[in-house]
Amino acid sequence: MNKPLEGKIALVTGASRGIGAAIAERLAADGAELVLHYGSGRAETEALAASLRETGRNVHLLQADLAAVDGGQQLVGRLAALQLPRIDVLVNNAGVALFAGLAETSAEEFEKLVSVNMRSLFFVTQGVAPLMPDGGRIINVSSAVTRIAFPGITAYSASKGFVDVLALQLAAELGPRGITVNVVAPGAIDTRMSAWIHGPGGKETLAQVQALPGIGQPSHVAGVVAFLAGPDGAWTTGQVVDASGGTKL
Ligand code: NAP
Description:
alpha/beta; seven-stranded parallel sheet; 7 helices; 7 strands; globular; binds NADP nicotinamide-adenine-dinucleotide phosphate
């Protein structure tokens, strides 16, 4: 039987580790050829690429620092150099967190959030959308904190609000081409970004706020992305799909 993404080419930003690496693994398992973007995690991305190639997949690597003012455009320029025929699936996953409230947020940290989580995501999407055939898929990784208010992650949450609104608007703009644009909203997921889970009180906090027991894994998010990228997601667009284990329902 054919795999659901056989013949498709998927670009995943921030694929060096964590959620992005799990998304890349899942889309490759579903049959896609992969373009793995990374910023500084070259060795990790090369190791991931090697393991995916062992399963028979075509894999390309793409470096770009999305904290640069023109990081999105740099990524798009280097993508063009790969001379791929098209990009069928774009997963805007790369992101940085900032655990700070209103008073503790510096202008420098704010600028980095804007660059990585907002500006680069926008210009990557702007550059990749013309490379998509009719029926392409765009999936943004946002966060459950656009639905739930937690003190102490103020600017980060607002940056993800941009990601949600952009997807809604693009779903209407790109819909006539049959391109779907959706958002996956993880809760706390067991990656380097949420290392606090394993710190004092981390697991107790999760038990208090989640409907489901346990710790969210990158594969939980990847499963939702695979649905939205695959044939079963064809009639879903402009949506935010929660992957938070029912956090603060
Ligand atoms: P992570 O382990 O810290 O990974 C972040 C990824 O983003 C890495 O691949 C990193 O690449 C890339 N990245 C960061 N800054 C970059 C830059 N300046 N230029 C290029 N790439 C950059 O985090 P994660 O948990 O997997 O997060 C993935 C996404 O999920 C993010 O958008 C995050 O906001 C979202 N999310 C995470 C959680 C959670 O609890 N973990 C919850 C909700 C939403 P390099 O290392 O190669 O630079």
